[in-house]
Amino acid sequence: MTLPKNRRYALVGTGSRAGMYVDALTTTYADVGTLVAWCDTNPTRMAYYDQVVTAAGGTAPPHYGPDDFARLLEEQRPDVVIVTSPDATHHRYATAALDAGCDVVVEKPLTTSLEPAQQIVKAVEGSSGDLVVTFNYRYSPRNSEVRRLIASGAIGKVTSIHFEWALDTVHGADYFRRWHRRKEISGGLLVHKSSHHFDLVNWWLADVPELVVAAGGLRFYGDKNAAERGLTDRPARSAGSPALSSDPFALDMAADEKLRALYLDAEADDGYLRDQDVFSPGITIEDNMGLLVTYRSGTILTYSLNAHAPWEGYRVSINGTEGRLELEVVERSFVDPVDRAVDPSVNPDDPTATATNPRPAGERILLQRHWEPAQEVPVPAGEGGHGGGDNHLLDDIFRPTSTPDPLHHRAGYQDGLRSVAVGIAANRSLETGRPVSITEFGLPLDR
After folding, report:
1. Model's pTM, two decimal places?
2. CA angle 51, 55, 56 (to 5 degrees)
């Protein structure tokens, strides 16, 4: 598929994640199309990206508020709407854009609950537009290699997968500072964060999840847990705190030019605080979660997510009828109390093992067939964020080609549904204490 040139792009949600798309359309992909509109609740954030566009020689797009989105579609007539707003609002913009015949690019997760998912299905099926969900981890070379090995039959038919994800006390903590801490907006980490992981498993297996059993809770962050550990008298936020420089859970937005411009300087517009204390009241999401998921093929997934680990990365063990695959990724081996970059996938630490750091950043795939020694599988190099996935994702969004992709990296709305359905079912299981059947959701999960 080759897209026409000079497409008109509107972007909804001008927070940090929007930057990847704005930078792309003002630099590497400037020949592909033009940004013709922003839509956000906050004029300061839109003005920040105005400066990015004009610095690149472009014209600042007009600003629209959420209530003006229909007018944006009518006046600007975008070909594509990119949605990077808070998760619970994705369906609102996606459905309206699809109804107007636009293509839609949606940041994961597709949505946060069942009814909005059903609305998106209806809009997609009645639209001439296409919807893409940006699962950038699919494009990471290491994850693509796992998909290739499974598809090649290297371990036979997959029977079970164990998937462990560790978020450290910087990146993991960040979800408890911002709007993600409220489940009604983010769906919790089982929707917002784990949708990446569930999509990887669905994609690796080319299979459909059917039943979910979940357990979990808020065990580390939040005011009650802090009180139990004697962490009292903490400030409500990082800004203005006398312990800002020494508190490992604080976020100094003033020290980061982009965070300061997008959030600290924008607080007067809407009152949104980007640096709330992770041990303050009001957190309604979990920080420890475990799932059992069964698939149509009979494969079993056991999954865990911890958001307060001392290192960041993931381990996957995939068992098959003819052997086993193991993937281990260390994105950050430990948290430096001085240099606390939020996202380790963008700036991973030193990959060299030392006597004082035996867990260096890096990645390894092991393949072991029955009755054979294990062999290490070379992982192609990847550059950029999310294990090299972001750059490949942007190529697929802005410069798709007709070249066949046997691994099927591009994620459509059904991929988004399959992924978020696991998280929605997991949240229901947490509420009820019972298994939840995804098949009862009535969503079209087949390709």
Report:
1. 0.95
2. 120
